[in-house]
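Box 3.1 A note on notation
Throughout this textbook, protein chains are presented in two layers. The first layer is the amino acid sequence; the second is a token string describing backbone geometry. Keep the layers aligned when reading.
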Amino acid sequence: MIKMKNLVLGYKKEKILKDINLEIKDGEFIGIIGPSGAGKSTLMMSVTGGIKVFDGKFKVLGHDMDNIKKKRLRKIREQIGVIFQGYNLVDRLSVLDNVVSGMLGDIPVARAVLRYYKDKELVKAKEYMDIVDMSKYATKRCDELSGGQRQRVAIARALAGEPKIILADEPISALDEKSAKKVMDILRRINQDYGVTIIANLHHLEVAKKYCSRIVGVNDGRIVFDSKSCELSSEIVENIYTIQK
């Protein structure tokens, strides 16, 4: 599904990630950990094609990312859902409207603006809201929700695009323990029941060990650990977080 070989990534002239070798298979739940500024978000978001490829081989969903055409890149991005720490919802709109906005690839803009949805679209939206336990708030404005509820709406919106991959950039860092558990339980269900590949950038080590089948440790722009979560010992964690530049 994703393959990086001797990959160098960055922005403009600055190289952020060096000599990256990573393969992610269909249906995995990957947790990316490491100190701030290590390159975790750059590594994860490179999957959307927004990061410059300086060198190496990089494939996403079978397509070369180093010299991809814009039309093809749009098609790839339609198969990738993204969940942000800050939710990125339209606060003045309802839960339902935000979820349906995830289907904009299938809904004409005019109908979306008028909020005229067909029955099949409403049925799909309810399914996604049910998954995240937000159907009862369908008509509620998103700025009236708690942080945990808003993140669950963001997950439902990502699901509405029927993605093959979901990228979760620090999805629980702003949430309390109870809300964080609910969000992670939902992501695990989506991974296990729907077969969606999930890549999550996480700061909570215990959460990463509990929910992710595999952990990738990043420090100083390099992958310094890549193995099953059960192999993440305290000594390895110390090594990931203390490697010096």
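The mean pLDDT is 91. The CA atoms of residues 38 and 120 lie 44 Å apart.
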